[in-house]
Amino acid sequence: MSETTGSRQHPQVFDVSLNVPSHGSKCYDDDGKLKRTGTVWTASAHIITAVIGSGVLSLAWATAQLGWIAGPTVLFLFSFVTYYTSALLAACYRSGDPDTGKRNYTYMDAVSANLGGFKVKVCGAIQYINLFGVAIGYTIAASISMMAVERSNCFHTRGDDSPCRVSSNPYMIAFGVIEIIFSQIPDFDQIWWLSIVAAIMSFTYSTIGLGLGVAKVAESGKIRGSLTGISIGRVTETQKIWRSFQALGAIAFAYSYSLILIEIQDTIKSPPSESKTMKRATAISVAVTTVFYMLCGCFGYAAFGDSSPGNLLTGFGFYNPYWLLDIANAAIVIHLIGAYQVYCQPLFAFVEKTALAYFPDSKIIAKEISIPIPGFKPLKLNLFRLVWRTVFVVITTVISMLMPFFNDVVGILGALGFWPLTVYFPVEMYIVQKRIPKWSSRWICLQILSMACLVISIAAGVGSFAGVVSDLKVYKPFKTSY
User: Fold this and answer.
1) Which pLDDT score is estimated for 475?
2) How many CB atoms lie within 10 A of CB 137?
């Protein structure tokens, strides 16, 4: 591991080898690690990169299932719950005193410090399965956007009625190769620049999707859609229920970033306290994403009504201007390259930390090879990191090619992960941290919030599962084309 990675995860190794004082140094934080440099803006960039995924483009479809009343209401409620529970979670970064208490470097560390026991294993399993699922979902989403560029150029050349069939496999492989390269960035705090680029890209394609929706509404001169969503007749009553549940899953997954919140918070410098900075970053990020989500979801629905596509930019609700669609889809791909890393870095760090704990004397795991690059800092290469992260990317790419409808499965993961990771664990940890008495009015309100979100998660999971069952009827492995 690099000095940064090793020091972030194993302070005892760092302190002994470099004889660094744990307190009072200008270069080191109170835990003896290299001084953190993150700000409210870098934290906001990480969050926006994680939150505004290509999921924003499915919000028009989600709004179409729920209608003009429930759609915006559900979006707003999810944003409020996400902000509130993220603020609770941010307060759990340090155990004890919010300014000087012991740091928890990961979500699992926070659960271990506050709740302990079996809950730590449950939390870890849910968190890392979610991260694995997101990596697969992003690979599929990126390939769909790359195919959309080829198809839009085909439509432009041959006409909108041409079949223009394209295979997803070459694009998934290309995305995998790019991620293998970027996955060698050693640590979370070293990808801040990738997050900022990705955040800019997310604004780019969201704005284009919004602009095209506004233009289509202006062109037709009327606002489509209804108060109750997609009409019975276009779909059956049963389909209406499943689709409404699935829409909840899409919105829940679109807002979910709590599983990497503590890792983002561990990059922030202090003073002021990390929890204050993180709450500000969360407020900024959730406010920005909610405005974008509302605009994209509502204008997309207003433009297409019941026929809103599952993806505003790749579902070919729009065909022209084709060059603008190409720019938007290229921005989606660049964004997903960064988002993949933001989500996978905590998983990478967990595996490497565990491997080093089991084999502390292994040179393969611990030794860094310095490769000089003219004009840049030397590249720190670690053999274990190189092999295991490459294998991870290869596995996620192969699964994406094998099960290209995995977005529905990711919807299940998102729905089931929303309640425990975004609501249950933050609420329970906060109750322990602040010593809130059982059956007090505050305790009861927090439990009601948790139970309500559990019901929503179950409904969303059921809807997404129904989508998978539907996909399996026409499933052919490794043969996906659009």
Assistant:
1) 64
2) 27
CB contact set of 176 (below 8 Å; sequence gap of 6+): 139, 393, 394, 396, 397
Given a contact cutoff of 8 angstroms between Cβ atoms, the answer to whether 388 and 365 are in contact is no
Q: What is the amino acid identity at position 245?
A: F
How far is the C-alpha of 406 from the C-alpha of 186, rounded, in Å?
28
Closest listed residue to residue 336, CA positions, set 107, 170, 115, 182: 182
Is the preceding omega at residue 372 within 30 degrees of 0, hence cis? no
Dist CA 155 CA 316 (whole Å): 10
Beta-carbon contacts of 413 under 8 Å, excluding residues fewer than 6 positions away, are 129, 130, 133, 134
Q: How far apart are the first and last CA of the chain?
A: 42
DSSP assignment string, 458-475: HHHHHHHHHHHHHHHTT-
**What DSSP string runs through 211-265?**
HHHHHHHHHHTS----TT-SPBTTB-HHHHHHHHHHHHHHHHHHH--GGGHHHHH
Angstrom distance (rounded) from CA 288 to CA 33: 33
> Which domains does the chain carry?
1-31 (no CATH), 36-472 (1.20.1740)
Cα three-residue angle 52-54-55, rounded to 5 degrees: 80
pTM over 0.70: yes
Q: For residue 457, give the amino acid letter.
A: S
- Whose CA is closest to 187, among 126, 269, 264, 128? 264
Q: Are 338 and 198 in contact (CB under 8 A)?
A: yes
Specify whether the CB–CB gap between 183 and 139 falls below 8 A.
no
Measure the CA angle with vertex 112, ends 111 and 113; round to 5°: 95
Q: What is the pLDDT of residues 293-332, one digit of tens each?
A: 888 888 888 888 887 777 666 655 555 677 888 888 888 8
Per residue in 333-342, pLDDT (tens digit) is 888 888 888 7
Buried-exposed string 182-201: b where 16+ CB fall within 10 A, e elsewhere: bbebbbbbebbebbbbbbbb
3-class state of residue 190 by DSSP: helix
User: Residue 30: which H helix or E strand, with range?
Assistant: none
Question: Which residues 6+ apart lie within 8 Å of 128 measured at CB?
Answer: 347, 350
Q: Which DSSP category does 436 fall into?
A: P
Contacts of 276 (CB under 8 A, 6+ apart): none
Preceding peptide of 420 cis, ω within 30°: no
